[in-house]
Specification:
The structure is a single chain. The chain is globular, with a radius of gyration of 15 Å. It is built from three helices and seven strands. It is of the alpha+beta class and 172 residues long. Strands 1, 2, 3, 4, 5, 6 and 7 form a seven-stranded antiparallel sheet that branches. The protein has a single domain, classed as Roll (Chitinase A, domain 3).
Length: 172
């Protein structure tokens, strides 16, 4: 039953994102702003089950990554209590490269709304993250620092550095 709820929620999320991106919006329509206008720095944008805050914007002329693309990002992932569970290389100072399609659904959906140079804070509920199973840390993982408990809300500070042709990434 839970798997069905997650699947339905994911389909609804993808439908909303496709509509927002397909109409040229940048997620601003979720805040009540006019479609096609970019959220201002500091605006909190809410999508079904997801939330992001724009910390810095890159050039609006840059493309957005597709689900089939690989991306280079700098990030720090925190649990709801603020403890760090994952970072890109060198504790978040160097970018990690991965395929957009291989990460948790909430992260994948939001990174597809970004452009290179953007720096956002994502808040992802458990059902669009690691859900009721969580994720166990298994050395020698480079980017995961500790276990992610079941039903954890995740907070990521993310900077999209670059978009690459698919097939060149490795999961952080």
């Amino acid at each position: 039953m839970r798997a069905r709820i997650v699947a339905v929620a994911s389909l609804a999320l993808w439908g909303c994102l496709a509509a927002c991106v397909g109409q040229g919006a940048t997620g601003a329509s979720a805040t009540g702003a006019t479609a096609g206008t970019a959220p201002k720095g500091g605006d909190v944008v809410r999508l079904p089950g997801l939330k992001y805050k724009v910390l810095r914007s890159g050039p609006r002329s840059s493309p957005r990554p597709l689900r089939s693309d690989d991306v280079a990002i700098r990030y720090i992932g925190r649990l709801g209590d603020g403890s760090i569970f994952s970072t890109s290389l060198s504790n978040g100072t160097q970018p990690s490269t991965f395929s957009v399609r291989t990460v948790i659904p909430g992260f994948s959906a939001l990174v597809q709304l970004m452009r290179p140079g953007d720096r956002w804070r994502f808040t992802i509920p458990a059902y669009l993250g690691y859900g009721h199973k969580g994720r166990r840390f298994t050395p020698p993982e480079v980017t995961l620092k500790r276990d992610i408990p079941p039903e954890s809300r995740l907070i990521f500070d993310v900077e999209l550095v670059d978009i690459m042709p698919s097939g060149s990434g490795s999961l952080p």
